[in-house]
Amino acid sequence: MPDVFRERTEKEFRIPTEDELKTLSSQFKREALQAGFELAGIAEATAADGFDRFSEWLDAGHAAGMSYLHKHREARQHPRNIFPEVRSILMLGICYANIPTPPSRPTIGRVARYAQGPDYHDFLWDKLNTLLAKLQRILPGLQGRGVVDTAPLLERDFARRAGLGWFGKNTMLISKKRGSYLLLAALLLDAKLPSDVPHLQSHCGTCTACLDACPTDALLSPGTLDARKCISYHTIESRDTIPLNLRESIGDWLFGCDICQEVCPWNRKSDSFSLPHNPDLEVLDAQELVGLTQEEFRRRFRLTPLSRPKWEGLRRNALIVLGNTADNKVLPLLTQIFSEESGMLKETAEWAIKEINTRTCNARGASNKETSE
Ligand code: B12
Ligand code: SF4
Ligand code: SF4
Predict the structure, then answer these.
(1) Residue 114 CA: which ligand is closest?
(2) Number of domains in the chain
(3) Which of 94, 209, 259, 323 is disulfide-compatible with 355, CB 3.0–4.6 A?
(4) pLDDT by residue (tens digit) across 70-112?
(5) Which domain holds residue 28?
(6) Which residues contact 42 (CB under 8 A, 6 or more apart)?
(7) Taking every annotated instance into account, which residue ranges of this chain make up the domain 4Fe-4S ferredoxin-type (predicted)?
(8) Which residues form ligand 2's pocket by a CB distance below 6 Å?
């Protein structure tokens, strides 16, 4: 098919019929599903519905130290700021609902499900490029740009507009069919295609399981997350010392957090995953990680999401997991880190030592009390 779907040529060419456009939309979505995406929908490329909400969220300080969100604030207002010719957005979702292995030892840390595989950005970009090439064979002259996470697009906003799901009270985009263990991606296209029906209705009902389960009360109210309190933010994005009042609640989360999704009833049946899974990233021993050299860290995690907090950040997280084990067998290792390191790692090792000592003392006190009673 020729260039008929582009604005600049509409006057010169025959305007396509509604039916032709609908057929093309269905064909594009079918190709997306064949390319391995589980959800596909089309959204009109106009200003983002949630921009004001996003802006208020930034002004309230809820983005914590994610300065890139402030820096590209205005760009998120409209997708044309990423691709000036954009007229439609093909929104896509891919599942990663693999079932996690329960920790076998107290020093094993938990890794968020999405991160138990390769870096999803590279994986999805490859898929988007292959898909775009296929769509260009269907509609020669079509231009597009693939987006996964790093470009300033309010992805959940456009996913809802494309009919993929609704905004849960935990802020996740939830699909009725697939739950929320989904990663989103977008193909910004210069062709004007008929849009899908936006998913305006919420299916959370009276449920508040995610708000009740969040151990740090990071979900301030339905649909509002304060990253300053979120385990996911602190263990993935933050390069700083983790606030003292959150450390105990982090428990054994070594990287990311899935609690507000684990409790969601819409995830009970979701068990499909199309993202490659790497079992080596499923169970990581925090003891091993604190002693990792920079070179070992690079070799092991370079192509995975766990490279994001960097060498120091991942070891900081591992120290917190160890501090929460209440296992005094790890004290010699912590003492060694305390004497060899400086700054954030020294301080976190010191906290972990104190934490283990206090918890062991308390446990001893409690068992003495029981025997004397
Ligand atoms: C910054 C960021 C984070 C931050 C902040 C998260 C947050 N809730 O805001 C931190 C580091 C905490 C984080 C954590 C996680 N993230 Co994150 N994150 C992002 C990123 C880069 C931007 C999100 C953003 O702009 N947040 C600001 C808030 C205000 O925007 P929002 O959450 O998108 O909410 C919009 C809508 O909810 C809408 N809205 C809500 N109600 C209403 C009502 C009306 C009337 C309207 C008009 C709009 C509206 O308004 C908001 C603005 O548009 C996106 C990728 C992207 N480019 O969008 C991934 C993204 C949201 N993250 C993702 C994932 C997987 C995660 C984690 C699960 C990872 C983990 N296991 O640890 C957790 C989940 C925590 C949680 N409950 O959100 C996925 C989510 C997929 C999905 N199904 O929703 C995304 C989309 C990345 C991707 N490409 O797949 N993340
Ligand atoms: S990711 Fe964890 S800490 Fe963040 S809001 Fe969800 S449950 Fe709370
Ligand atoms: S746990 Fe309940 S309230 Fe939270 S997102 Fe899921 S359905 Fe909605």
Answers:
(1) 1
(2) 1
(3) 323
(4) 999 999 999 999 999 999 999 999 999 877 777 778 899 999 9
(5) 3-99+115-189
(6) 25, 28, 29, 88, 89, 90, 91, 162, 193, 194, 195, 196
(7) 195-224
(8) 170, 214, 216, 218-219, 225, 230-232, 257, 259-260
